[in-house]
């Protein structure tokens, strides 16, 4: 049987199963295993031979899964996740919002802007968009509704703020992208800083313009704050700032690798929580159980994707796809436009990690063939996945907000508010595509 036919069949089977909502880890692992077995069982132009297909299939699965799961770099994933959980339970992450709320309470739309900064700070600690949306949604949305903020503004700011976790380091998506493309995770983290800050600035401008045009959606608070209150609030944020310095400053200064930064962040969050008596043993236990659960799910999906990538490479589907695109003779900007459109469409229906792992085997060879920088392309991919987190009908962050934000934060209301922010998101995406140096200036300055 022609290997390309088997590979094409496997890819179609994956897409059909994903449409049927079968979990992506099971889809990638099972389809790759079955199709790899068929590839070896039908080789050499002879008929079907079960024993000929079994041994190499099991060997491929074992070698790929073992090699990936025993990667030194992969160890940073559970450490960053654990640091995020401990930071949440010890209120390190939420103190950022509390500080910004005191400083911005008298600014029109100040609570919404404080929510965006809180989400940005939370993201810089946890690296998870949905965890950010879930945790900050429980805090920020009720507070904004208490001051009669429009439900669309309240829910959409937290939903959009949660997406910052995809770009602002540490980012789980950057870690997985780096492992699969064999690029530096540390450089990916640094490349995400300016795009993340640019996105945050765009969101803040969106709130200011929205409130300026329609003042009624964000009534001014009559709460008064003194200079002493502001100083005290700023003091609360130092642990969060320290975690950011460990990750960003440590990596940029060349003092730490990304894995070392993850370990030190975990220890800092744990020690601070214990010394400040904000953490008890039940919280620590809960944090580590949640970390194990989330890490196991991520590892299973990633291991399944690693097996799937090997299967696709084995059958030559990737080369056939590259040749097909090359025959189309697309200009670089046309190729990027097609890839961006593909990610935006897939992001409407699939979760970000699944979208990335499904597409990387096909798009990375195209990008390398065009001579484009894989670090820059990693930022583009993560930015596109970030947009997918708030794009209907899937919009995972929006549905997370709908589940935690109270009776006024239904998905329809949140999507109406998100539409304004998406305009800014797309504008930032165009800037990143047009000016790669926005992403590369910080990592390049390390050399």
From TrEMBL:
Superkingdom as given in the UniProt entry: Bacteria
Short name of any one Pfam family annotated for the protein: DctM
Primary location group: membrane
Membrane topology: Multi-pass membrane protein
Domain TRAP C4-dicarboxylate transport system permease DctM subunit span(s) in chain numbering: 11-437
Keyword Cytoplasm attached: no
Subcellular location: Cell inner membrane
Gene Ontology CC terms, in alphabetical order: plasma membrane
Classification via NCBIfam families: dctM
Biological function: Part of the tripartite ATP-independent periplasmic (TRAP) transport system.
UniProt record similarity statement: Belongs to the TRAP transporter large permease family.
Protein name in UniProt: TRAP transporter large permease protein
Protein source organism: Oceaniovalibus guishaninsula JLT2003
